[in-house]
Every structure is written in C-alpha cells, then in structure tokens.
Amino acid sequence: MFSKNTHHIKTICPRARNAKLVQLADAARFARGAAPEFFRRVQNERKRSVGPAPFLPHPEKWPDRGLHAAWLGHSTVLLKIDGFTILTDPVLGNHCGVRVGPMTVGLKRMVAPALLRPQLPHIDLILLSHAHFDHFDLPTLRGLERPGTAVITASNTSDLLRVARYRSVAELGWGERVHVGPLSILGIQVRHWGARLRSDTHRGYNGYLIETDRRRVVFGGDTAYTDTFRAARGSRPVDLAIMPIGAYNPWIHAHCNPEQAWRMGADCGAEHLLPVHHQTFRLSREPFFEPVERFMEAAGSRPESVVTTRIGQEWSQD
Ligand SMILES: [Zn+2]
Ligand SMILES: [Zn+2]
Fold first, then answer.
1. Nearest bound ligand to CA 88?
2. 81 CA to middle of ligand 2, Å?
3. Which residue in 219, 223, 201, 194 sits closest to 274, CA to CA?
C-alpha cells in the first residue's frame, strides 16, 4: 500500500508540475502577446549603450572668486559660489530606480554624466529637491558621503540618508531658511509631489533660493508652473536660475513646459538661466531635443542668457 501510494504520488507530481509549467508558459505567451512593445523595450534597453556626454567641464580651473556652474546631466549641477561648492540632485549612475540585489530596476540614462565622482572637487553642500529616483539617487549619495559635506533636503526625506556620515543634514520646509557656510538658503514652494513610492506621501518637495553677500541663485527642483518663484525677487537680481524644462508630455500637471520654465525664470528676475531635467532620461513622450529647442525659442532675443544647452557645458561670472 505504501509503495502504491508512493507510486501514486510520483505519477501525480510531474503531471501537476507540468500543469504549472503550462500555466506559466501560457501566462508568458499572453503577456508577450498583450505587451510585445514592453518586452521589446526592456530587451533593447538592456542592450543599449549609454552615449558619452558631449562636453567635459573643468571645475579644477574655476577660481575661488566668482560664480561658476556646470551641467552634469538631468538635474545635477555643480556650482561654485565664491569658493563654496554645491552639487544639486546628484545622480551619477547609469540607472536610477529601485535597487534589487545588485541590479537597479528603473530608468537607464541616454547620456553619461559629464563628470563621475572621482572627477568631482570636494563638495561643501549637497542640495536635494525631493526624493524622486531621478533626483535622489542612493548609490550616488552614498558615494558622496564625507564628514566635510553638508546636506539640505526637503521635509521628511532625511530618513533615506545615512545622516551620521555627513557633516550635517538639514530638512527645509517652504518659507524656511537655513545657513550653511557663507550661504543662506530659503525653501521655495513648488507644484509637484514628494512620494518616492506610492504610500510615502508625507515627503516634501522644494525649490531653493541660495544667497551670499554677492550672489543669488535659484534651483527650481522639479515643478509644474507656479508663480511662487516671485518669492525670490529681491533688491538684487538673481544671477542664475536653474529651471527644469522636460518631462511635460503628458505630465504637464507635475512638470512645466519650456515656456513656463522661462516665465518662472522671469518671475524671479533671473539674469541667466540654466535649463535642466532634459536630454538625460526618457521620462515622457516629447522628442529628445524639443525641450531645449522650445526653451531657446522662448528666450527670443536673449539667447545669451541661457548658459548651457548641452550636457557638460559650463559657465562662469566674475
Ligand atoms: Zn519629481
Ligand atoms: Zn524629475
């Protein structure tokens, strides 16, 4: 009887396993049939190589005096303001997204960053606008952990950082001000959202005004059109406004278009503009160069006020 049962089990099990395999194969065939485009895209993405940055900046040549900026890709900008270095939303890996073991499931860059970590100078301040994966990249941030580096980030986002490994970490809300080295930094309300995943809706999202005695710089973060950058207007002009210009089709409710980015630059009284959030990741449907082409059109008779149009370009003001 025992052997009969064993025999019985042996004959049932492979059949059951077969049925499972058939079900899985059916499901896979169905998924492939239903979403061939998706499977093709995933496969093509894996094979696709990341293009080199078209320009290579040389921050090691920047003097301590003056205002200097280099666009490293997406929303990552290296700034030096009278000798103090700032890095905005650092994302320097080939992928950004959720880490699963050794892999990152998410977006792959189209163009490599203009500088990698070993080529960066000492960073005095990392300025983080919000916790979305294309702005707040944990592997990059871990690589930048230094006891001499301060971090300013949006409300309820510092739990994602290994806070003790930096000089200081400050969360800033809208309308709040904090002092770091020679800088005074104001959190500006923007129109976006902060959840990194679906449920963490408590996280904040900021634009910033960075001020010293002689310089004023706006970092717009990620935003739909808003008139809140008027808060950055003052008795002195804004020397440079870093404004996002891409990912508006169809996400216009969360990302401004180039004309709106231009208007926000005008709202804060910016003399120069550095457009970001384009030419790096495919987040939306607009053609690759459309954001910068439309931004230059919006600039009209002031094309010289746009300081970078390609990744890796740099700009300096005495
Ligand atoms: Zn975002
Ligand atoms: Zn973004």
1. 2
2. 25
3. 219
| SS3 assignment, position 94 | coil
Range of the domain at 282: 52-317
30 and 164 co-located in one domain: no
In this structure, are 124 and 15 located in the same domain? no
Greater model confidence, 242 or 7: 242
d(Cα 91, Cα 138) in Å, to the nearest integer?
9
What is the average pLDDT across 83-112?
90
pLDDT digits (tens, 9 = 90+) for 168-195: 999 999 999 999 999 999 999 999 999 9
Residue 224 CA, ligand 1 centroid: distance in Å: 10
Distance in angstroms (rounded) separating the CA atoms of residues 186 and 178: 7
**Any domain includes 47:** no
Q: Count the domains in the chain.
A: 2
Closest ligand to the CA of 96: 2
